[in-house]
Amino acid sequence: MATATKTYEYAVRDAGGQLVTGTLDAASEAALVARLKGMGYAPVSLQEKGGGTGLNREITLPGGDRVSLKDLAVMSRQFATMVGAGLSLVRSLAILAEQTQSKGLQKALAEVRGRVETGASLSDSLAAHPRVFPPLMTNMVRAGEVGGFLDKVLLQVAETFEAEVKLTAKIKSAMTYPVVVFVMAILATAGMLIFIVPVFAGMFSDLGGELPLPTQVLVVLSDVLRVGAPFLVVLAVAGAVAWGRVRHREEVRAVVDPLKLRLPVFGTLFRKVAISRFTRNLGTMVTCGVPILQSLEIVGATAGNVVIQRATEDVQESVRQGQSMTAPLSRHPVFPPMVVQMLSVGEDTGAIDAMLHKISEFYDQEVESTTEALTALIEPLMIAVLGSVIGAMIIALYMPIFSVFELIE
Questions:
Q1: In sequence order, what are the beta bridge partners of 7?
Q2: Which of 35, 237, 370, 409 is 20 to 30 Å from 331 by CA-CA measure?
Q3: Alpha-carbon span 306 to 311, nearest angstrom
Q4: How far apart are CA 191 and CA 194, in angstroms?
Q5: Containing H/E element for 249?
Q6: Within its chain, how far is the Cα of 262 from the centroid?
Q7: How far apart, in whole angstroms, are the C-alpha atoms of residue 313 and residue 290?
């Protein structure tokens, strides 16, 4: 029967008298003290982690320990600077854990440091936290450890994550305006149907007479919405929760991802983003010395689109059989001919990593120009849609007023 372990927070003095803090798992305090002494530390204090109750327990909000890509980018750049300056991994991890603002990253770094102190490699320690440190980072760090250029690899990781954050910010900026206008249109329409239309409907019924067809439709919609509004809200919340749980499943992605690339306005943008992410991640891993088959497997899983992932699997099979990378890509329409030809030249010249970075830079610029064009196109369209919806409702409400005098007579 396995012995139950607990997590302890400890403070110790190292051989130089410096105070060192961290967390470790142990069966008891005595076992932890023996372990710390065996590592050459003098224990100062021990405390079981998460033992607080009532008002002493730390409150964690949902999503409060989430680690963003920006947090990882900042951490990687700082880590590279400290490693390049000659600081030990344990000391560097301790500093990073103290100064990071992310609670989730702070906890993960403390546990990584504990593993490194016991003799585990940095890459294996990072791999123990796949929800915090993505496989892309873990494998690049492993290649840097083997090649002896960990600081350069960490800089590459930071630059890759920073580029991804910048790319994501561009997409969000392009989507923010239409989403806000769309939500405002829904709220304005719902408000008029729930609060304004019933007032007009009561006035029209008092006057008598037959309402115009557009006004009748508006009154019916108002009655339906007033009765069904709570059910619609519950249905919307339930749908959002259900979608958040199933959207990453393979069978759902197999249907949704190809549709995203076929959208009339945003499909081109999604394809450029996917190609940029694919080429950047693959180029970075190849530059850092990660084996090509392992790089393709990781890049396919992190591409964010099942269409790119399937193409990557075909490339893996081709490389495994000793053939070229570019032949399978030409069979997938998601990759434009320019990308295939540039990769072919990169294979022939032995500069596949440099060519991948050039393609990524090109598509980053394409994403930026596409988002600017979409924003310029969508703004007047959304204003026209919002004005048309509200204007049509006002006209439908005021149509009966034209015959009010006839009804009074």
A1: 25
A2: 370
A3: 9
A4: 5
A5: none
A6: 22
A7: 17
CB 46 within 8 A of CB 60: no
Question: Do residues 163 and 357 lie in contact, with contact meaning Cβ atoms separated by under 8 Å?
Answer: no
pLDDT exceeding 90 applies to what percent of the chain?
Answer: 1
Report the alpha-carbon distance of residue 278 to residue 312 in Å, rounded.
9
Distance CA 224, CA 202 (A): 16
Task: Give the whole-angstrom CA distance, residue 253 versus residue 256.
Answer: 5
Computed on alpha carbons and rounded to an integer, the radius of gyration of the chain in Å comes to: 30
Q: What is the pLDDT of residues 212-266, one digit of tens each?
A: 788 888 888 888 888 887 888 889 889 888 888 888 787 888 888 888 888 887 8
Q: What average pLDDT does this structure show over 62-81? A: 80
Q: Is the pTM of this model over 0.85?
A: no
What residue type is 25 in one-letter code? Answer: D
Write phi, then psi, for 15 (nearest 5 degrees). Answer: -65, -25
In the block, residue with structure tokens 């709570």: 230
| Under 8 Å between Cβ of 290 and 312 | no
The H helix count followed by the E strand count for the chain is: 17, 3
| Lowest mean pLDDT, pick from 52-56, 172-176, 317-321, 327-331 | 52-56
Grouping H, G, I as helix, E, B as strand and the rest as coil, residue 350 is coil
Name the residue among 167, 147, 142, 146 with its Cα closest to residue 157. Answer: 142
CA distance 135 to 80: 18
Structural contact between residues 393 and 189, judged by C-beta atoms closer than 8 angstroms: yes
Buried b (16+ CB within 10 A) or exposed e, 123-136: bebbbebeebbbbb
| Rounded (10°) CA dihedral 219, 223, 225, 230 | 160
What DSSP string runs through 13-49?
Answer: E-TTS-EEEEEEEESSHHHHHHHHHHTT-EEEEEEET
Side-chain half-sphere CA neighbours of 3 within 13 A:
7
- pLDDT(24) > 80: no
The secondary structure of 300-317 as a DSSP string is HHTSS-HHHHHHHHHHHH
